[in-house]
Amino acid sequence: MTYESLLDEKVETKVDQLSNHTWLRIGGTAEIATPKSKEEAIELLSCCKENNIPYRILGAGSNLLVDTNGITDLIIDMKKCCQSIEVDGTSVTAGASVKLPQLANYIIRHDLGGIEYLYSVPGTVGGGVFMNAGRGMGHNSTLSDYLVSVEFFNGKEIETQPREYFDFSNRYSSFQDHNDWVILSATFEFPEENEEDSTQKIKDRMLKTKSRERSLPNAGSVFKTGQPLPLKGLQIGDAKFSDNNRIINTGDATSKDVERLMKIAKIANKIIPGGRDLKTEYQIWKDDN
Ligand SMILES: Cc1cc2nc3c(=O)[nH]c(=O)nc-3n(C[C@H](O)[C@H](O)[C@H](O)COP(=O)(O)OP(=O)(O)OC[C@H]3O[C@@H](n4cnc5c(N)ncnc54)[C@H](O)[C@@H]3O)c2cc1C
């Protein structure tokens, strides 16, 4: 099948505002293809590679700052294609589309735990592995703690590699250095945990993370670094620091508004005595990166 007929006849495709697909509610127009199965995703990815069509992978859009001017690369939305969860004793294999809260909730019903704190993280397994999602600084817990292996498309074929292959560290995996790698599923070995205890941990976590401003559009922590300077309240356009490390979109914020706020935060943190470089956690999508 040609690339055109694949998009016209097989894979669900539409042109849409990416703001409809990101937690920050920011992002211009793009062509978005949503494969409905793993096979369809592989067919599309292979076809893109053969035809030199650049693509970007969209999970739940909860860590993305997308250019308000839009993106010309094809966006491959993974939300439908890899939704299975298989449990075999303490071994769990979850598809890339599975939401992290869904996974945390699912495994506790099998008396497994360890990722209750991820119940508050609205990403997918794919995005979580890509970002090595985890708990705030000081807690030292990340999704990769229980990871055994990852199945991914390597630009040519499907490959499975053990955890060590991906150099996980603070909000980093080597997927971030390989644009064409696409996570299909991840296998974990979770510790046994009493269902009631896990449920309580989830409730405690949700109480801690719930606040009014957190319910406004945002994409989690802006920077990887612990506690940046207090910038709460600083605002450009409709983008505003709701705390030292979180920017909310109070209305019609643009990607430029957010980038300007980030720039101010970086400069302010650099020029103070003993200042330091803030490393960006957001994944920023623009046509030139
Ligand atoms: C309210 C809120 C709370 C949050 N709390 C936390 C927290 O406590 N801890 C934390 O670590 N993060 C947190 N985040 C950030 C975010 O949820 C995580 O980084 C999450 O793992 C991103 O997953 P996603 O599916 O949304 O990825 P997206 O935002 O869609 O994508 C992020 C990156 O991953 C890539 N990607 C996604 N899926 C795949 C795939 N299948 N294969 C290859 N690449 C892929 C994308 O191309 C992109 O570069 C929070 C965000 C919000 C909005």
UniProtKB/TrEMBL annotation:
Residues annotated as domain FAD-binding PCMH-type: 25-193
Pfam families (UniProt xref): FAD_binding_4
Record-linked SUPFAM superfamilies: FAD-binding/transporter-associated domain-like (SSF56176), Uridine diphospho-N-Acetylenolpyruvylglucosamine reductase, MurB, C-terminal domain (SSF56194)
PROSITE patterns: FAD_PCMH
Region (Disordered): 206-226
One term of GO molecular function: FAD binding
Name under which the protein is recorded: UDP-N-acetylenolpyruvoylglucosamine reductase
Organism this protein belongs to: Halalkalicoccus jeotgali (strain DSM 18796 / CECT 7217 / JCM 14584 / KCTC 4019 / B3)
